[in-house]
């Protein structure tokens, strides 16, 4: 009996140290959404059930090993079957499993009920960034990694949010039910933000649903959770949860900016403004593969600087950026970038790093080709 | 008949008395067990579906 107590004490020590592990961030977070606390509670309930089973089973085993050891003259029993014991050890796990399935199913039902959402956000994974579209609001943008290349290459000290920072976070209101629609442009990605208790695959050709009602304002970070290519680690997620009024004014501002941008399609753009805009687009969208100086990384990512086909054939160049090249890593950008962004980045790549074609591609021209 | 049902239910759980097992094999005709097994499996599926429908309702 004393030995059993020793084992129980050992088990409790282990259990105690898992409390420490929680504090150290080894465990999943309690989170800030209406369901995340419930999911955490479910996880902990099942964890403790497992701990109790582990302590009892291994306790009984080690106790028996020690108490009835051969050196003390123990003789092994020799019998063939015992129906009562078999029924007991079959029924108990059955009851435990059903007991765990009941609360788990109750929570899953809530997770799978995206009805009555007040805001729909389409989340599209793309190698290697996330695109957010506020459905019905005409607001959409790409969210790119903002960590400087110098930090990644080890030339600079790493910042506080190394690889977990983006140029434009997903802004969401608190206390509103937000429905997410997940899909992908290329390969399978997964949108994962632990604090929101949302982890959902984004699959090309499919639309997955999930929802969240955030209860505390703040910045919540996450990552792509499905290996999706070389820059899988470089497409983080940042969610900025704000008060409802703040969100409404932010959305109104973005809508206005989007409307202004749409008007800009029709006017004639000057070379300088196209180049300036294009440099920004190139930096956030193209440079991760084609490199900041357009030198590329052959053979996977061809050089743009001094690329003869690009310089000679503007039509091919525009088509390549708009529609991508199937069978290669070059995606189609016709749905990711708007006409102004497409025109300016094409103009930029036709005139930067010694590609002096002098071509100024107009947004109106791109808009026409997009409609074909 | 009741004996057959009991044996099939025991098989569902995966535990059976050796005595009962030997007795079952004396019957010589497996058809009763097969038919009972199929019927009870359908009942089990129906029960699970019922629980799922009630839970979702």
TL;DR of this structure?
The complex is a heterodimer of chains A (372) and B (57). Chain A has 372 residues and is of the alpha+beta class. Helix content of chain A is 44%, strand content 16%.
User: In the CATH scheme, what's the topology name of the largest domain in chain A?
Assistant: Immunoglobulin-like
Secondary-structure content class of chain B:
mainly alpha
Distance between the termini of chain B: 36 Å
Number of domains of chain A: 3
CATH class of the largest domain in chain A: Mainly Beta
Mean model confidence by pLDDT of chain A: 87
Given the C-alpha coordinates, what overall shape of chain B results?
elongated
What can be said about the biggest beta sheet of chain B? none
Write down the domain tally of chain B: 1
Q: Topology as H/E string of chain A?
A: HHHEEEHEEEEEEEHHHHHH
Counting DSSP H or I runs of 4 or more residues, the number of helices of chain A is 10
Total DSSP E strands of chain B: 0
Outline the structure in words.
The complex is a heterodimer of chains A (372) and B (57). Chain A is α+β, with helices and mostly antiparallel strands and 372 residues long. Chain A has 3 domains: 2-68 and 86-111; 119-244, Immunoglobulin-like (Sandwich), CATH 2.60.40.420; 265-371, Cytochrome Bc1 Complex, Chain D, domain 2 (Orthogonal Bundle), CATH 1.10.760. In chain A, 44% of the residues lie in helices and 16% in strands. Chain A has helices at residues 2-23, 36-67, 83-111, 149-152, 244-264, 271-290, 308-312, 314-323, 339-351, 363-371, and strands at residues 119-126, 129-134, 139-143, 170-173, 178-184, 189-193, 198-202, 208-212, 218-224, 237-242. In chain A, the strands form 2 sheets. Chain A has a 5-stranded mixed sheet. In chain A, helix 9 (339-351) crosses helix 10 (363-371). The N and C termini of chain A lie far apart (83 Å). Chain B has one domain (2-56). Chain B is built from 3 helices and no strands. The mean pLDDT of chain B is 87. Chain B is elongated and about 45 Å long. With 57 residues, chain B is mainly alpha-helical. In chain B, helix 1 crosses helix 3. At the A-B interface, helix 3 of A face loops of B.
